[in-house]
Amino acid sequence: MYDTTAHANSFGPVAAQYQAARPSYPDALFDELERLAGRPLPGADVLDVGAGTGIATRLLAGRGARVIAVEPSDGMAAVLREVSPQIPVVKAAGDELPFHDASADFVTYAQAFHWTEPERSVPEALRVLRPGGALAVWWNVKDYEVPWLAAQQERTAAALPSSYHHYGGVNVRHEALTRTGLEVRSARLRWERTLPVEQVIDDLTSRSYFAVLEPEQRAPVLAAEREALLAEFPDGQVVEPYLLDVFVVPKP
Q1: What is the strand order of the sheet 129-142 is part of?
Q2: Fewest CB within a 10 Å sphere: which of 23, 40, 53, 140?
């Protein structure tokens, strides 16, 4: 049985693998974010919610925003502080933001909005946003139309029937926002990265459906996946394509 709470709380112990192996985001994402929101990032006050180890947080700061990382996991926040000690971190989750009304220009979620209850997190975002601000959520999703990724997904689902849970396609995520009755602007980007097989294994280890398992449970599955990847990519370098969906809800 899929336990959402257990999966949501599973990231702390695998924070190092998360930081080392999870994909980043192309510059074009932040161009689209500014276009959809109708306002620039430089000088903006941003709350990056579910910041994890700060992968997106650092990129937002690099675009000139003043960013506060909001992260409920002590393990993830510890890595964020170690890697980026200059970025302030607040322990909290999106369903209850400990910030004043009208105190931010952007509330962002990178790979994290699906861990919230939209009926709570969207009103909370709108509460802390200033007039003209925007809620922005985005996901890197592996392109499962590519045959080797489709095969990997099938192997994972078969090997981990009790823990594997794909958090839904773009329509599911879009509907969570449109149910609010607010305007939702969106864009899709395609990009890819090349990485060694061992980094792919670390990436998988950081996924909640592996992280909730005991080490002795996940080890044989990861070993089999390593073998399958090396058969597909004999040089040990994996080309991993992504669909990057971004949704922006301007504050009325």
Answers
A1: 89-90, 66-70, 45-49, 104-110, 129-142, 237-250, 185-196
A2: 40
User: Which pLDDT tens digit goes with each residue over 208-226?
Assistant: 778 778 888 889 999 999 9
22 band by pLDDT with thresholds 50, 70 and 90: confident
Is 3 a residue whose pLDDT tops 70?
A: no
pTM above 0.85, yes or no: yes
In the chain, % helix, strand, coil (3-state, to 5) comes to 45, 25, 30
Specify the DSSP class assigned to residue 115.
Answer: G
- Convert the pLDDT of each residue in 30-74 to its tens digit: 999 999 999 999 999 999 999 999 999 999 999 999 999 999 999
Give CA–CA dist 131/52, Å, rounded: 27
Q: Is 245 helix (H, G, I), strand (E, B) or coil?
A: strand
Pair of tokens at residue 29: 């994402």
Q: Say if residues 65 and 41 touch (Cβ distance below 8 Å).
A: yes
Domains and CATH numbers, the chain: 4-142+167-192+242-250 (3.40.50.150)
Is residue 90 classed exposed, middle or buried when 0-12, 13-18 and 19+ CB atoms within 10 A define those classes?
middle
